[in-house]
Amino acid sequence: MHRNRRTIFVATMVAMLAMLSLATTASAKLVGMWVKFEQCPYTTTGVSKCTHSVTDSGEVVLGSKTVPIVNPVTLQGGFTKPAIEGPEEGFSKFFAAKNGETLSKTPQPVPGGLLGLVPPENSPFLVKLLLQAATENGLTGVNSTLELARPVSEIKISESHLAEKLGVALVLPLKAHLENPILGESCYVGSEKEPIWWELTTGETNPPAPNEPISGSTGTVSFFEGGRIAEFGDSTLVDNAWAAPSASGCGGLLAPVIDPIINLASGLPAKAGTNTAILEGDISATTAAALRKVDLENP
Question: What is the pLDDT of residue 298?
C-alpha cells in the first residue's frame, strides 16, 4: 500500500511539473491592437521592429492585363535596424512571419477570365453581368495570386524612405501564379531565377517610356498605445518601372502549346515601363521591445 501511494505521489508530481513547464514555455498573448503583430518574430535576435501591412485596393497592370486588388493581401514580419553604410544603406533586413505566411497567397480574379473578354466601361449593367458570368466561372475564370519568388531575406524595407516619400520604401521579389483548371497548378509569370522585382515608393516614380511618373502617398499617420504603434492609414505604394517575364508551365504537358497562347493574350513578356503596381491600404509598425513588454504584461 505504501509503495502504491508513493507511486501515485511521484506520478502526480511529474504531471504537475509537466503542466508547470508547459505554462512557463507557452507564448504569452498579445491583446487589443497588438494582436496584428502576433506573427512577428519579435523574440528573434536581431529583430528590432515589426510590420503588418494590409493592401485592400489598387491594381496591378501586368502586360496587357489589368487586375484590380479586391481581396486583402497581407505582408507581415520583422526587420532589423537599417544598415548605416554600404549598398544596403538605409534598408533593413526582413524576417519571415512565424506562421510562414509572410506574404499571404490571396487570389485576385482576372477580369475577362481565360477568354479575356472585358466589356467597355459604358456597357449596360446587364451586359457586364452576363459577360462576367460567362467568362469568370469555374472553367474559364482565372485568378492571379502574387507569391514570393525568392527567400524572405531578399525583401528590403526602409522606414525613412516610406515616411519621407523619397526613394524606394519596399523591395519585393515576386511571381504571379495564374490559376485555372485548364492552366494546371504550375502556370507562373516569374520564377526564382527570373523574379518580378517591385521597388515600391510612397513618392514619385521615374519609369521608362511609355509609362509616365505616378505618385504614392504615406496617407494619414496616426499613433496608438502611447505612441508605440505607428500606422500609415490609406497609404499608397507604387511602382511602374518594372519588367515582367513570359508565363511558363501553363497547361502541364501541353505547356509548349499553351504558354505561347497565354503570353500572346497577356502581352508577355512586358518590358520595363509597361507594367504598374498600385497598392492601397494600411501599414502598421511597432518595436520588438514593445511587443515583448506586452507579452510580460499579459501572460
Answer: 80
pLDDT of residue 99: 97
What is this structure's pTM? 0.83
User: 98 phi and psi, to 5 degrees?
Assistant: -60, -35
From first CA to last CA, the distance across the chain in angstroms is 41
The cell for 60 is: 496591378
> How confident is the chain (299 residues) per 10-residue block, as mean pLDDT?
46 39 49 95 97 98 96 98 89 97 96 55 44 46 94 97 96 96 92 98 98 98 96 98 97 90 92 98 98 87
Q: What angle do CA 182, 184, 188 make, to 5 degrees?
A: 115
Class of residue 51 by CB neighbours under 10 A (exposed 0-12, middle 13-18, buried 19+): buried
User: What's the per-residue H, E or C state across the chain?
Assistant: CHHHHHHHHHHHHHHHHHHHHHHHHCCCCCCHHHHHHCCCCCCCCCCCEEEEEEEEEEEEEECCEEEECCCCEEEEEEECCCECCCCCECCEEEECCCCCCCECCCCEECCCHHHCCCCCCCCCHHHHHHHHHHHCCCCCCCEEEEEECCCHHHCEECHHHHHHCCCCCEEEEEEEEEEECCCECCCEECCCCCCEEEEEECCECCCCCCCCCCECECCEEEEECCCCEEEEEEEEEEECCCCECCEECCCHHHHHHHHHHHHHHHCCCECCCCCEEEEEEEEEEEEHHHHHHHHHHCC
Sequence-distant (≥ 6) Cβ neighbours of residue 141 within 8 angstroms: 109, 110, 113, 114, 135, 180
Q: How far apart are CA 102 and CA 63, in angstroms?
A: 26
Task: Determine how β-strand 170-179 pairs with β-strand 156-157.
Answer: antiparallel
* Cell output for 145: 495570386
